Amino acid sequence: MEQLVVRPGLRGLTGRLKGGGLRTAALAVIALLVVAAVLAPLVAPADPDAVDLSAVLAGPSADHLLGADASGRDLLSRVIYGARTGLLGPLGVVALSTVLGVVIGLAAAWHGGWVDAALSRSMELVFAFPGLLLAMLVVAMYGPGQLGPVITLAVAYTPFVGRMVRGVARGEMGRPYIAAYRALGFSGLTICLRHLLPNIAPVILAQSTINFGYALLDLAGLAFLGLGVQPPAADWGAMINEGQSAVLQGALGPILVPGMAIVLSVIAFNIVGESLADRVSRR
Amino acid sequence: MNIDLEVRGLSKRYGAFTAVDDVGFDLATGGSLGLVGESGSGKTTTARLLLGLERPDAGTVLVAGRPLASLGRKDRARLIQIVFQDPLGSLDPRLTVEESLAEVLRLHFPGEPHAARTAELLEQVGLGPREARAMPRELSGGQRQRVAIARALAVRPKVLVLDEAVAALDVSVQAQILGLLAEIRTAGDVSYLFITHDLAVVGCVTDHVAVMRRGRIVESGPTARVLTAPEHEYTRLLLDSVPRPAF
Amino acid sequence: MLEIDDLSVRLPRTARPAIDRISLTVAENETVGLVGESGSGKSLTARAVLGLLPKGARTSGEIRMDGADVLSMSPAGLRRHRTHAAAMIYQDPRAAISPFRRIGDFLAEILREEMGARAARARAVELLGMVGLPEPERHVRQHPHELSGGMLQRVVIAAALAGEPRLLLADEPTTALDVTTQAEIIRLLRELRARTRTGMLFITHDLELAAMICDRVYVMYAGRVMETGPTRQLFAKPRHPYTEGLLSATPRVSDLGTLPPPIPGRPPDLLSAPPGCPFAPRCPHAMDSCTAAAPLLVDGVACVKAEP
User: Fold this and answer.
1) pTM of the predicted model, to two decimals?
2) A chain contacts of residue B108, beta-carbon cutoff 8 Å
3) A34: how many CB neighbours lie within 10 A of its CB?
4) pLDDT digit string, tens, across residues A196-244
5) Rounded to 5 degrees, what are φ and ψ at B13?
């Protein structure tokens, strides 16, 4: 679908690599992430906060499969636990922005006229501020943490969803079944919820999946800057932040391990989102 | 003679463009009126105005003596219905035929059992239980159009607007649908407004016809008279343009 | 000039051939109609003549244009074939012309390679004059959205004529147009034929329209030719029950107040392969033997009941 918003760099990458096997791999990565997040205490080999001073900045070994960080904490366990905030944050962003975007987009498309103009203008206003900047502003005002950035990013993502929903809904409204239901006496709300929304839901799902990856990246970025989830919590962004000093001491593990986790998940969500979109447009 | 549909002074402008300009006509109870025109003639806009899909700038529409503008959407729906050209696009792709019909019955006749009525409607348009459980994409063009007709009839309307309803169908199937529509008209008290570009179709199924051009009605009268002794030069041009064998 | 000999085309994931052993000829200065309903294979036949079959299509038989086999042409040969031998006029002119290019550029592009930019421009103006556009010099500078559908279809025809093809393939060239515009385009096609002596394969679902312009007609159903013959004879005395049914199912202005008798049932889709004659399930004269084996086209008609 042409209305899907994909950041240019990633589109090229996933576009070139796309294929049946790749989608399966991406789905596997996502499944693995979910398992890790839900069953972290069961699958993690060690306590993510347990300090093992004998293993400070150790490389991969039998005791620490992916090595340990500057405080001697097991990196594998921390990455596994990191999947929890890593997925929960974006889930909040995507859920909130999808609901808001759908409501705004449908309202704008259905009513048209001044309602459309007002909603579209306000969405453009939010567009004008980069989401990350907005989130930093909120953190500066209310202090760091997970909740502030999630809500702010959700607001920042809403126009993307809203504009996409508006466009797709207007296209779908051009089809005669919508006019037929209006002529049959159904209310606008009923038609929107029972006929219009289910028919455009696959497109929305595809966009939300892609947004999930971006939200993950943005939240990790904020945590890295010390504005999101705070150390010593096991969060990928926060782990990279903490790992900076390790790099100066020649150990790349503390940065590479969470970094790879972020990159892999973002790419996985992108691939799945785009393949969903592909399937929708082929219908 | 009773009048089912009475249109007076209907007008609609989009910016500087006048799509429908002072259009008026009567449709007798149980009658069939053709509204003929080419693209841009305003015939489809007229249909949308009648169905309340667009708001007219001026004019009144009375169905069975009741002004449509003053009615709620459900009351209006029970007076006038429409069947569109595109049979696939007219049905929600996610609902089975049965579900499509049941939903309309639930809205308009809540509390009444609708299983029997659904079967009756489908039988009326020549469809059986197998089609009832099918999704729109599993049906042929003609079958889809039958479903659209059944759905419109579900509310027992006084007037049925057929907006190029047979134009997208194959010739052999088109004749089936025209026959079905004629059958329905003889069986029940519904009158037709046939909106079409096809004079041959108009000749088959209407008793009166109005010819539209650039938003205005240029000629109207009994179909037999208009098609055999046209008075307006545009009607003559339309008639001369109908393909007929060179020999 | 064009000879289709026992052509079959089978598309991937279908139960029956989309084109089933058809043979057809078009001579110089002859207009031949290919009439059929949706799914009859008529448009696919035109695409086959242009060498434009979809990927995965399996073919047998031959298509010869002035003796050269189209199905085995090289890509370069096909390009030449599509401009100079057989050119296509499409159904929807707005889809056939890029909306961002001037009319003149659209036409000149086809010719530039062979005659140079300046000559191509001059020829574009000449072509537009030929298809009856009133001010060709002005129209070459216009964009498609400035022209009406009928004028655009004239441009598409001009583009088809650009390479002075021996054969024009017109695939429902007036279906997207208004009735009055359709009449003008048909008149133009007739005039052009008288002037250029090109052959034309005219594809349509509309029998009356075919009768207006064609010398001979092939009636297709479910990928097969059901009947063929000179237009006048085919209309006056249809021999195949399908032709007969189709003719009587067509509404006519002259038949005021009478409903055309329909053909029951519906055309078969590509996913089912009924045995025997494909029309048998809808045919009023069908016998047991009809579903046993499909009758071959003998003496212009593929029906066991046809009178000689």
Assistant:
1) 0.86
2) 185
3) 12
4) 999 999 999 999 999 999 999 999 988 888 888 887 788 898 888 888 8
5) -115, 145
